[in-house]
Fold this protein.
Amino acid sequence: MIDISISEAAELLRQKQVSPVDLATACLDRIERFNPVLNAFITVTHESAMAQARVAEDEIQRGKWRGPLHGIPVGLKDLIDTAGVRTTCGSALFADRVPTEDADVVQRLKRAGAVLIGKQNLQEFAYGGTSASSHYGAVHNPWNLKHIAGGSSGGSAAAVAAGMCFAAIGSDTGGSIREPAAFCGIVGLKPTYGRVSTRGVFPLSWSLDHVGPICRNVRDAALMLEAIAGYDVLDPTCVDWPTEEYAKALSVKTDFRIGLVRQPFFEDLDTDIELAINEAIEVIRNMSHVSSQVIEVDLPSVPTAVQASEVYAIHKNYYANSPELYRPWMRERLAQAATADTVAYVTDRFALERLRRTTGDVFAEVDLLITPTTPVPPITIEEASTMSPHPAGEVWLRNTRPFNAYGLPTISIPTGFTSAGLPIGLQIAGPRFGEGKVLAFAHAFEQATDWHKRAPTLPSAAL
């Protein structure tokens, strides 16, 4: 039952062939069996999830159908506020923090009838791409337990890949949805900056934070985006822009002009990733949805002083009062951020605004942009635990970070495996508020390949 998609499960629920209680029970059973080895969840909301499932069951039985997420078990990255349920951000500092109000995305999911099944592990305060530095221990990759699941939304990606929930909501400041999705062989969507409210999501960098879905296929990502997208007047970063019926956009027949962004995204690629991406490009060239022209384009460089300065501003008082509650990785990153220059920040913050107004010019000649999601495959957890926390060391975020600065909608979808059996991702970006176009092409590529149909074989020790 857990290996079906949201759309398939929704149809079964609507026809009353299965119950929300059945789905919640199946997911909770898998969490009980596999979370001890994957460490994907920090908090499992067993009682409230079952209560929500029973309410959904009653509503569906009485014909009060709320839509495709009604009765679907969904997980939340544990920096998304949930009223009455602790939200730890993966840190000892917030180990006992219990919000009194739901984040905007949680309110929207509840209105859609989703069953919220638990809070998922992450890199402490989302500052890093491994999910190996968490107060609650490292997240393990379902495809190989010795390797990282990526980060910072590593627990969310591992849980979705392992069938512990049908989808999850993560955050993305430098690649934290797309990189773990690539490393776990699933789909991760970073919407346009301001498309989804970040209110009630503990910030890493106000200017770069995005919130989006992590799913097993593109259609599920479209359905999740429909539920969480929309204007939030209480969020100063949210933009009042019309939403779409994103799932319907998947069936729109159109030709796409594809741009390959070679520099620096194709530089120094792992051999297996380079092979997989070249094969993906050949698939794209032969797709009926693609115009005959696939051209190379350039993107501007991005300002670099914004994130560290904002991270330090957010944590300055916490760090001054309780430095011992931060893990070593986070302490070192904050020490680096403390040296940020105010003039550099102001200059780069202005440059960021100008960049977001001009980057869209590239879409005069192409409709979408293609890159590898990551230049390298996931390292081992042991390697992650001993590496330097200097951001330059996190090469797996090199290809994702720029799109947070651009603010463009960007998705990672499966496109192969390394010789060691670890997943590889293809990154697709589109124009501002062009999520429908990005999803439509990602879906077309997905239908032309079989990579999204593969699932990890979870360790027998957990059975």
